[in-house]
Every structure is written in structure tokens, then in C-alpha cells.
């Protein structure tokens, strides 16, 4: 009898996975929220695995663990609410912007929340001062051009409005410390990752439950802050997306999205290079060192 073909080996691996995963059905059902039928969740996981042979070849324990985390978050690994991605042979559960927004909206902790990318042919203005505001009119009748910035806005029950804006340069600092900076989600779904990045930064200042904080930390393992600046391959579409385009200048208003007075207080005494390197790490809930200094920034409408 000859050796199995690659297709036959994959088929055997898929059958073995389905059998092993089916034996976890009780644990999966216990982890899922009531509104997601266990059968549906398990069907989505099996579909995701069958559609990506690399998942079958990856560490099986990490695949089961990542699937369980997705169930605990109450999100589907369907590449909309979240995705099963691979790093160094291990599977990682990564919630995506659609899933995060879904969870936040369903939590009842906020009146509304959203995150978007502004492009060079859109009309986009970020205004600071006594009446802070963001104005964005997407271009609907033609190419929108290259990305310029990403922003997130949240409204709380007490009438407060929280805003966060990140330039492409800010977003690129985050991408460059990703262990998958030039492959995977940052290449396949750049806009999704940009929206998620600015939302994560905004979330540091929002009233959220511990469950939501855990959700936002899920893919921290995909980032290596110890090698800041080593991955210098840039995002290609834009060289300098904000030059003379946004009605707000960093020099005049004090660092639009990072490196302002609040961050300067946290890193007082360090040089400009250290401040720039540290900014990317600040975009994640895992670094709480400067959180108290950021609490009051970008909020209006809910305070006297």
C-alpha cells in the first residue's frame, strides 16, 4: 500500500480534529453565552479549520485552547468577529473589530461606540479646544485614496463623549512591534487592525467591565514590545498621510493622539526617541503605568 497523498493526510487530520473537538462539546457549551448554540459555534470552528490547512498542522493543544477562549468571549471565529491565527506554530485567538464592537454594544455600558479609518479623499477634521470634535465625510462617489488616520468615538450613559485619533504613523508604530507585522491580519485586514488599534487605545479610558478588558487583551501575545523599532518595513500605500491635511497640527495642539502633555508626564526625563518607542506599547491595555494620566483626555459633554 502506497503512502498517503497530501490531500489524504489533510483529510485524516481533519477527521481526527472533528472527533477530538466533538469530545469537548460539553466544555464548549458551558463556556458559551446562552444566545450562541453550541452546535453553531462548533460548526464555525470546524469550517475555519477545514478552510486553513495550517491550523490542522499547528499545535493541536493551542488550537483547542484558542477555540475555548473564543467561546468564553462569546464570539465566532468566522474572520469577522474573530479569527484563529498562527504564530510560531501555535494558534492564537484574535478578536476582530466587529466582534469587539458587538461585545461593547451588547454590554450596555455605553450608549454608542464606533471606530473608522479616514482616507485622503474624505473630508476629515479633528478640532481641539473648548469644543472638541471630529468631522468625517467619506467620499462615496469615487476612490477614497490612501489611509490618513483612524479614530474612535464612544458615548457614555452620563453624557460623556470620549475620542481618540491616531495618525498612520501612530498605527505603524503598533504594527512594527507585532510579531506578524508583515503577514497575517496586518497584511490581509489592515483597515480592520487600524480600527481595532485606535479602539484599544480609547478603551483604556472607558468605563468597562473586567470581561471587556480581558477581551481587549486577548491578542497581546502577538506583540513583542522588547524589539521596538527592529521591524522597519513600512506600510506601503502612504508615506506621510497627515501632512497639511488634517485641520489640527501637533505642534499647536500638543500631540494629537500620543506624545501630548499627559504622556510626557508619564515619561518625564526620557529623550524623544524613547517617547516615540514607548508610544506603541501604550496602545494596549496591558500597560497600565500611564493610565491615570490619560483619564481626562478627550472627554466632553459629561462633566460640568
Total strands: the figure is 8
- Report mean pLDDT, rounded to a whole number: 75
Structural class: alpha+beta
- Low confidence ranges: 228-297
What's the SSE pattern? HHHHHEEHEEEEEHHHHHHHHE
Strands across the major sheet, in which order? 3-6-7-8
Radius of gyration: 21 Å
Total count of helical runs of at least 4 residues: 14
The N- and C-terminal alpha carbons lie at a distance of: 81 Å
Query: What is the overall shape?
Result: globular
Helix content: 40-55%
The figure for the number of domains is: 2
Per DSSP, what share of the residues sits in E-state strands of 2 or more residues?
Answer: 15-25%
The biggest beta sheet, please? 4 strands, antiparallel
Features:
ssDNA_annealing_RecT, alpha+beta, two-stranded antiparallel sheet, 304 residues, DNA binding, four-stranded antiparallel sheet, single chain, RecT_fam, 14 helices
Describe this entry's structure for a reader.
- It is a single chain.
- The chain is an alpha+beta fold and 304 residues long.
- It has two domains: 11-95; 96-227, no CATH class.
- It has helices at 6-22, 25-31, 38-50, 53-57, 60-73, 97-107, 168-176, 185-188, 190-203, 210-217, 250-253, 261-266, 272-281, 291-294, and strands at 82-87, 90-95, 110-119, 123-127, 133-137, 147-156, 161-167, 299-300.
- Helix 1 packs antiparallel against helix 3 (38-50) and helix 7 packs across helix 13.
- The protein is globular and about 75 Å long.
- Residues 228-297 have low confidence and may be disordered.
- This is Recombinase RecT.
- It holds the Pfam family RecT.
- Residues 260-285 have a biased composition (Acidic residues).
Amino acid at each position: 500500500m502506497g503512502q498517503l497523498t497530501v490531500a489524504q493526510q489533510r483529510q485524516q487530520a481533519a477527521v481526527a480534529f472533528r472527533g477530538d473537538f466533538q469530545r469537548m462539546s460539553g466544555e464548549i457549551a458551558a463556556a458559551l453565552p446562552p444566545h450562541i448554540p453550541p452546535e453553531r459555534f462548533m460548526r464555525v470552528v470546524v469550517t475555519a479549520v477545514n478552510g486553513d490547512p495550517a491550523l490542522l498542522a499547528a499545535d493541536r493543544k493551542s488550537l483547542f485552547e484558542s477555540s475555548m477562549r473564543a467561546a468564553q468571549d462569546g464570539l465566532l471565529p468566522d474572520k469577522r468577529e474573530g479569527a484563529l491565527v498562527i504564530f510560531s506554530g501555535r494558534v492564537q485567538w484574535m478578536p476582530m473589530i466587529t466582534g469587539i464592537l458587538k461585545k461593547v454594544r451588547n454590554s450596555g455600558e455605553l450608549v454608542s461606540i464606533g471606530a473608522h479609518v479616514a482616507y485622503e479623499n474624505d473630508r476629515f477634521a479633528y478640532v481641539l479646544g473648548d469644543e472638541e470634535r471630529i468631522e468625517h465625510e467619506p467620499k462615496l462617489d469615487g476612490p477614497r485614496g490612501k489611509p490618513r488616520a483612524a479614530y474612535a468615538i464612544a458615548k457614555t450613559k452620563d453624557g460623556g463623549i470620549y475620542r481618540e485619533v491616531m495618525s498612520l504613523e501612530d498605527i505603524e508604530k503598533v504594527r512594527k512591534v507585532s510579531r506578524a507585522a508583515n503577514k497575517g491580519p496586518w497584511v490581509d485586514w489592515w483597515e480592520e487592525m487600524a480600527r481595532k488599534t485606535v479602539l484599544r487605545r480609547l478603551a483604556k479610558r472607558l468605563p468597562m467591565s473586567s470581561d471587556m478588558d480581558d477581551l481587549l487583551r486577548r491578542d497581546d501575545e502577538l506583540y513583542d514590545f522588547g524589539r521596538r523599532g527592529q521591524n522597519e518595513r513600512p506600510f506601503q500605500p502612504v508615506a506621510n498621510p497627515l501632512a497639511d491635511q488634517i485641520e489640527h497640527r501637533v505642534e499647536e495642539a500638543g500631540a494629537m493622539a500620543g506624545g501630548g502633555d499627559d504622556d510626557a508626564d508619564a515619561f518625564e526625563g526620557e529623550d524623544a526617541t524613547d517617547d516615540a518607542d514607548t508610544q506603541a506599547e501604550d496602545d494596549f491595555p496591558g500597560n497600565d503605568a500611564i493610565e491615570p494620566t490619560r483619564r481626562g483626555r478627550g472627554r466632553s459633554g459629561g462633566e460640568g
